[in-house]
């Protein structure tokens, strides 16, 4: 029985090798995945942390979530400078403009919901929980967008006085607000803490969740493409142990909105806040799944100052005239 042998030239082997490889030793259908770099968000830009340090949080399966910036005191200071610079323009914007921008955030968040769901699941939640959290975050921004031109009329007042003047009380934004975002609700926690602060005209410096930081930078990308002026929202990642004292002691931070279950860190902020009499609001995070927790106009008022104005008027009949 004879066997036919096929002669294969060196040129044929080379041609076959090039057809299956890209010339660099890689298979034709293989590619290097471009991994996302999670940076901080300061002044409308995405710089790397000034410290040059990173940490690697893991999920419940032990998988590394990413290389996350470990923000420093300098990052906090840069964020406050950016927030203060943006405050005049943002606080002076019309209520209608603020409402449009918050609604635009909700629109952009809705269009990227698949990405947020994927990140929340990767951080350890179930798909059902992730979908619920994203939907609640979108609704939170829509809710506060609706309050932009209403909270002044609802909560301001004309006060009854005995004299020849009117007495008005109206609300004004406090200034730069430091936000310690919830640890366990990486997206919804950010939405419910940021929205009521900025709708009232404040600018914010946010410290995101340490163990679940992915959504914070992705949400910053949403802010960046939603007509939010640079510096209005600044987002940092890192360790609360390292940064808590800087939020409490910075003299140009007017208030701190605290959303963690840590009495130690809360007391640190309260003690340091005495130096410039900054307001400290403590919220119990729990789940942030009910409307009372995520949709509450009094959270806007928590970060407002009351301005009272006296306006003189003529008192008709003061001369004692009569019929």
Which keywords apply here?
41% helix; alpha/beta; 3-stranded antiparallel sheet; 323 residues; Aldehyde Dehydrogenase, Chain A, domain 1
Please explain how this structure is put together.
- The chain is of the alpha/beta class and 323 residues long.
- It has one domain: Aldehyde Dehydrogenase, Chain A, domain 1, CATH 3.40.605.10.
- 41% of the residues lie in helices and 15% in strands.
- The chain has twelve helices and ten strands.
- The strands form three sheets. The protein has a five-stranded parallel beta sheet with strand order 7-6-5-8-9, with helices on both faces.
- Helix 3 packs antiparallel against helix 5 and helix 4 packs across helix 5 (127-147).
- Mean pLDDT is 87; it is low at 1-6.
Low-pLDDT sequence parts? 1-6
Mean pLDDT: 87
User: Which series of helices and strands comes N to C?
Assistant: HEEHHHHHEEEHEHEHEHEHHE
CATH architecture designation:
3-Layer(aba) Sandwich
**Whole-number radius of gyration?**
27 Å
Helicity level: 40-55%
Strands ordered across the widest β-sheet: 7-6-5-8-9
Distance between the termini: 139 Å
At the fourth level of CATH, the homologous superfamily is Aldehyde Dehydrogenase, Chain A, domain 1
Work out the number of β strands.
10
In short:
With 323 residues, the protein is α/β, with parallel strands linked by helices. The protein has helices spanning 10-20, 73-91, 95-111, 113-122, 127-147, 151-155, 188-199, 214-224, 240-249, 263-272, 291-294, 298-301; strands at 54-55, 68-69, 157-159, 165-173, 176-180, 203-207, 233-236, 255-258, 279-282, 304-312. The protein has one domain (54-312): Aldehyde Dehydrogenase, Chain A, domain 1 (3-Layer(aba) Sandwich), CATH 3.40.605.10.
């Amino acid at each position: 029985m004879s066997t036919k042998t096929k002669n294969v030239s060196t040129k044929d082997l080379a041609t076959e090798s090039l057809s299956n490889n890209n010339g660099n030793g890689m298979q034709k259908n293989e590619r290097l995945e471009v991994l996302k770099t999670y940076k901080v968000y300061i002044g409308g830009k995405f710089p790397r942390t000034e410290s040059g340090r990173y940490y690697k949080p893991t999920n419940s399966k032990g998988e590394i979530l990413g290389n996350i910036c470990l923000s420093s005191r300098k990052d906090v200071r840069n964020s406050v400078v950016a927030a203060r610079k943006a405050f005049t323009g943002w606080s002076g914007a019309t209520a209608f403009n603020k409402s449009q921008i918050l609604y635009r955030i909700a629109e952009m968040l809705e269009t990227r919901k698949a990405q947020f769901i994927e990140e929340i699941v990767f951080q350890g939640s179930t798909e059902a929980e992730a979908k619920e959290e994203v939907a609640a975050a979108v609704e939170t921004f829509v809710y506060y967008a609706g309050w932009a031109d209403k909270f002044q009329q609802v909560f301001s007042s004309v006060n009854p006085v005995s004299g020849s003047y009117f007495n008005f009380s109206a609300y004004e934004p406090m200034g730069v607000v430091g936000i310690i975002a919830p640890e366990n609700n990486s997206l919804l926690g950010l939405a419910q803490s940021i929205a009521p602060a900025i709708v009232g005209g404040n600018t914010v410096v946010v410290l995101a969740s340490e163990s679940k930081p992915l959504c914070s930078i992705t949400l910053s990308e949403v802010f960046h493409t939603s007509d939010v002026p640079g510096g209005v929202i600044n987002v940092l990642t890192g360790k609360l142990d390292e940064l808590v004292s800087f939020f409490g002691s910075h003299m140009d931070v007017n208030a701190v909105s605290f959303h963690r279950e840590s009495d130690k860190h809360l007391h640190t902020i309260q003690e340091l806040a005495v130096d410039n009499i900054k307001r400290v609001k403590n919220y119990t995070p729990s789940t942030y799944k009910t409307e009372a927790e995520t949709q509450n106009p009094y959270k806007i008022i928590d970060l407002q100052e009351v301005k009272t104005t006296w306006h003189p008027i003529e008192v008709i009949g003061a001369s004692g005239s009569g019929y």
